[in-house]
Amino acid sequence: MITRRWPANALLLVLVTSFVGLAGCTTPKAKLMAGDGSGSFEAPNLLLIAIALTNDGTEPADDVQVTALSLSGGTLTLPTALPVAIGGIAPDGSTTVVANFTAAAAAPDTDYRVTIAGNFREHGRTYKFSVDKTVRTPPASPGSRAAGTGSVPTQHVTGAPYPPQPPNFGPEVNESEHGRRVPLGPERPLTPSMNSDVKPAPKGTGGGGSASISFPTNAPVGISSSTTAEPSGASGGGVVFESANWFAAFSTDGGSTFTKLDPTTIFPNSSDGGYCCDQIVQYAASIDRFIWVLQYSQATLSTDKPGKPTGPNRYRIASASPADVISSKGTSWSYFDLTSTALIGTKNSTWLDYPDSSLGDNYLYLGADDVNNRGHVVVRVPLSDIKAGGTINFRFTTPSDSAVAYGSHLTQNTRDQLFWAGHNHSSSIRVFNWPESSTSYSWRDISIGSWPATSSSNLMTSTTPDGNDWLNKLSGFPGNAVLGLARSGGGRDAGNLLYLAWTGAIGNGFKQPQVQWVALDVNDNFSLVSQQQVWNAGYAYAYPAFAVNSQNQIGMSLEWGGGGNYENHVAGFWGDYVVYQTTDSSIGTTRFGDYVSIRQHTADATKFDAFGYGLNKSSPPGSTVVDVHYIVFSR
After folding, report:
1. What are the start-end ranges of the E strands in 177-284?
2. What are the residue ranges of CATH 2.130.10.10 in the chain?
3. 341 in helix, strand or coil?
4. pLDDT tens column, 494-520
5. pLDDT band for position 305 (cuts 50, 70, 90)
């Protein structure tokens, strides 16, 4: 994703900010504000909150201290001592303030007003600050709701190629300080698993911890892209199709060569805004179609509600058989558009962002963030409608139900029901499921071991050799969102295991950011089977993507870096306790993309297709080459 995320939310926004100079009447150039905030309810009377404290000014705020936290009608229980030292907050930087309150009126699905007050220093002068924020607790659990319905017509590309146009990014609505913050939960024991190492990806077959691993393909796509590449792709019918933010490419020789595609020349643009970014690619073998999701943007900044994008915008969902991709050189597609208005209505000029997609036995699923209302919507589309190319009949969830899943992804290998998830707090995860046999979806809360959610004391940071914090963006968005989701297949476990993975911060005994993941038993009321980590004391792991092959092995696609290393893509199998580096970066960044991808390989379901990238120096000095890769690996 290449756009900023503004401080807008279903958990309402900053309402008051004031500054008072203790040593005079000057106005500081540092400006502390409240960004995104979230709340969680623990029966019988505990309210847990997490609020981003951001510096929207032009000077650093040094020695920030929180001296007061208050909730109308509540008593502060954590932290137990004030003041709390936050440290410095750079311009455009942020941290997360967490606190728990006991409140007789604490309840689910309720708004609570929280006040944070304190002081900071700027050039030797001390200033007070005070910010108010309203947070909303999630709906009661367990719960369920019937999905909404809608329909749109299929359209077919005619007249391509169209004149090329620059991507229409609109306002930036994906700023790092505005991802969902995870509250601090009650302490529950967590035992770290064995740590994981990194090795170069072997050519052919090489050693892999407990078993050998093969990388028959590790191919650079060779086409320039945004430095926030966000690669996605799939293979099927002799074609590899890959996207990376605002370009796409296909290969008919297994990845040896790729042909570049410009989406603005393939699809017609219209008056409501052109193609932007954030592409997702799947291959649906049951209908022999590539399914290509593209985000279109009309958003502008609201004049009456500063910081909020106005909409509507839309997702274009295109389909084509591998044979059509080959014969048309990637220019012949059927497509339909889903607008934010159709899915959410007109509330707050709704704008959708950060899509993901998944394939079930009978349906395509699309997930996206409801930016202005701080929710998450999931759409279900029959694959038979896509194949028929006529009217598309879809169902969709209520975004506010899934506010905890803001920034999260959908399950891969999901089969007869879809899953998605988000954190109530650092020791409870809310899991959603939508059976293909039902028109309703449900959710429930699962207690897990306490992991280090990002906060002022648990930092998500990792520095490359050139001094860049490559996790700077991730620390805010998508933050600790659940990005890696997969469901086991049949066979020895009868397909009952659900895997959920996310990035944790430094803390709780972990010296570096790490990937946290849990396995839940779907057939046993989603009971916790296992909680594991991909971690190392010397460097960071982040951005997990999971999939499962036909042998029920977990394939992982993620990034690693820090500790004297640049950020790079790695892939491997869970259980080997080693992952393999597929790229060779030579330059750091503070704005890595929001995801990498992995799919079960279609032609041989024991293999995985992974899509990742690195960054390299180039001439002239200061420029960067984006090294996007297509990777196939297996035992």
Report:
1. 197-200, 204-206, 213-220, 231-236, 239-244, 247-251, 259-261, 275-284
2. 148-634
3. helix
4. 568 999 999 999 999 999 999 999 999
5. very low
Say which residue the tokens 């959708």 belong to. Answer: 352
CA pair distance 581, 596, nearest whole angstrom:
14
The boundaries of every CATH 2.60.40.10 domain in the chain are 14-137
Residue 220 neighbours by CB distance under 10 Å: 17
Q: Do 98 and 455 touch, CB atoms closer than 8 A?
A: yes
Q: For residue range 108-121, list pLDDT tens digits in order.
A: 999 999 999 999 99
Q: Which are the contacts of 220, defined by CB distance < 8 A and separation ≥ 6?
A: 627, 628, 629
CATH of the structural domain 14-137, one choice from 2.60.40.10, 3.40.1190.10, 4.10.910.10, 3.40.50.620:
2.60.40.10
Is the pLDDT confidence value at 30 over 50? yes
Candidates 112, 39, 118, 45; CA nearest to 72 is 112
**3-class SS at 323?**
helix
Mean pLDDT, residues 607-618: 93
CATH T-level fold of 148-634: Methylamine Dehydrogenase; Chain H (2.130.10)
Tens of pLDDT, residues 235-289? 999 999 999 988 899 999 999 999 999 888 898 876 555 777 889 999 999 999 9
